[in-house]
Design goal:
199 residues; 9 helices; 14% strand
Length: 199
């Protein structure tokens, strides 16, 4: 089943589950390729037309962390007003900066945002390195209350998930959640075959 066909079968229960991401600094959706993670993100965003979302599709990414964060800031600026100053120059040069410098820079931007914002990374596994893990761990621990990260990945990200779980700061969605129930299977069959599924 391709993504377009999956799109026809609306996952209301999962959309409702993702709506709770506004209550957590981090939402992590982990499932194998082909499980419908990207399609679910599409449906969730479309069902929340008034939600501010900066989405970065990391499929095929080979860039370093500076390039990734620069693209993220560009996506954020497309959606909400942010502090526009020389801090953006940090991502335009080839200088050496510590992870703390990078985190502080991104946080200055996020703290300047006055409305709720969801920052979505689809296929996060493609950009995960030791450096990005360190930066994201630091960022997530210091996020303003109205900023929410949503990471979709084929494997559990190398983040402090155990600590975040203990502090009730992470919403987790896994492959079991993404499985189709009997009603959704019947609905998808009817869409694909133009006739109801015989019981």
């Amino acid at each position: 089943v391709d993504r377009r066909q999956r799109q026809m079968c609306i996952r209301d229960r999962l959309i409702s589950l993702l709506n709770h991401s506004k209550d957590f600094p981090l939402t992590v959706m982990v499932a194998p390729a082909g499980s419908g993670k990207s399609t679910l993100l599409d449906q969730w965003i479309l069902s929340n037309a008034n939600m501010n979302v900066a989405r970065l599709d990391a499929t095929g990414f080979e860039e370093g962390v500076f390039s990734i964060l620069k693209k993220l800031l560009i996506e954020i600026r497309k959606n909400v007003a942010v502090f526009d100053g020389p801090i953006f120059n940090l991502f335009n040069g080839d200088g050496e900066y510590s992870n703390l410098d990078v985190v502080d820079t991104v946080l200055q931007v996020l703290e300047s945002i006055e409305v709720p914002l969801h920052i979505v990374f689809d296929d996060y596994q493609n950009i995960e390195t030791d450096q990005t893990s360190q930066i994201f761990n630091n960022l997530i621990s210091r996020l303003p209350n109205h900023i929410h990260f949503v990471l979709s990945s084929r494997h559990h990200p190398k983040l402090n998930l155990s600590r975040l779980k203990l502090e009730d700061k992470v919403l987790q969605v896994d492959a079991n959640d993404l499985n189709f129930d009997a009603g959704q299977i019947s609905s998808l069959y009817a869409i694909l075959c133009s006739r109801p599924l015989n019981k």
